[in-house]
């Protein structure tokens, strides 16, 4: 266990044990998920007692880029749209990446004050969640000087976050059984000479025939997210209190 993780876990001893709701939205458009995040963040600003929430979902084929590239990617956008994918500029950190079916996307809407976390430590905590999730499938993953989680020299999970007044949005994208050929059209996260991989792709390398789906990974990821962040994760629909009923109503209205 790293010194960071030991220190981070110690900070959680002062936080009362509580439930962290999560919801799996299946596949929804990036635009709809982005607008939902914006609304939930604003809801947190206006309602101090609102719950933290972990959004889990998949996107149809979509390329996104981070805030440093806003207004600089017109040629790239035109090319990628011709492939049949959507394209969005965002305010998250990081550069261009791909989201699509077979990729487990997580958007934690958390108040970092509750966890006594700096932004850097929050990113490191997310990386530990992904590393532990990969380990559950016998895949040895790690971090490098570059953000994200890696298996050897191949990236298995991209991480790009936004924090406003201590409230997080955006998050991580873990490749489960993603069609990796979509990444061939970009320089993923701006890193030359790097390739992408997935949980299923790592199994194929070891001549294992199993396909690891998003739905299979969700319980494992939730278990490790809860362990790292010191919370017990439960489906939003199973938590019956006013705060979570409001969150359910907000999400239902966005999905109409």
Automatic annotation (TrEMBL):
InterPro entries: aa-tRNA-synth_II/BPL/LPL, BPL_LPL_catalytic, Octanoyltransferase, Octanoyltransferase_CS. One of its GO terms (biological process) is protein lipoylation. Transmembrane segments: none annotated. Pathway: Protein modification; protein lipoylation via endogenous pathway; protein N(6)-(lipoyl)lysine from octanoyl-[acyl-carrier-protein]: step 1/2. Residues 48-233 form the BPL/LPL catalytic domain. Its EC number is 2.3.1.181. GO terms for cellular component: mitochondrion. GO terms for molecular function: lipoyl(octanoyl) transferase activity. PROSITE patterns: BPL_LPL_CATALYTIC, LIPB. Pfam families: LplA-B_cat. It is found in: Mitochondrion. It is an enzyme of class 2 (transferase). Keywords: Acyltransferase, Transferase. Belongs to the LipB family. This is lipoyl(octanoyl) transferase.
């Amino acid at each position: 266990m790293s010194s960071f993780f030991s220190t981070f876990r110690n900070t959680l001893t002062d936080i009362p044990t509580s439930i962290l709701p999560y919801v799996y939205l299946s596949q929804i458009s990036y635009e709809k998920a982005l607008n939902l995040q914006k609304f939930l963040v604003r809801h947190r600003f206006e309602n101090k007692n609102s719950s933290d929430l972990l959004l889990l979902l998949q996107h149809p084929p979509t390329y996104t880029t981070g805030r440093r590239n806003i207004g600089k990617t017109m040629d790239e956008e035109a090319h990628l749209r011709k492939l049949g994918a959507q394209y969005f500029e965002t305010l998250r950190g990081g550069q261009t990446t791909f989201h699509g079916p077979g990729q487990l996307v997580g958007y934690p809407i958390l108040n970092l004050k509750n966890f006594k976390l700096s932004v850097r430590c929050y990113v490191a905590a997310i990386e530990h969640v992904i590393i532990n999730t990969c380990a559950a499938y016998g895949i040895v993953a790690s971090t490098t000087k570059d953000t994200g989680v890696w298996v050897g020299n191949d990236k298995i999970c991209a991480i790009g976050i936004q924090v406003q007044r201590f409230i997080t949005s955006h998050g991580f994208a873990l490749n489960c059984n993603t069609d990796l050929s979509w990444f061939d059209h970009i320089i993923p996260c701006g890193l030359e000479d790097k390739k992408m991989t997935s949980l299923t792709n790592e199994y194929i390398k070891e001549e294992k025939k199993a396909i690891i789906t998003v739905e299979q990974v969700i319980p494992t990821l939730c278990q490790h997210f809860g362990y790292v962040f010191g919370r017990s994760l439960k489906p939003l629909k199973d938590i019956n209190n006013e705060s979570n009923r409001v969150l359910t109503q907000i999400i239902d209205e966005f999905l109409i």
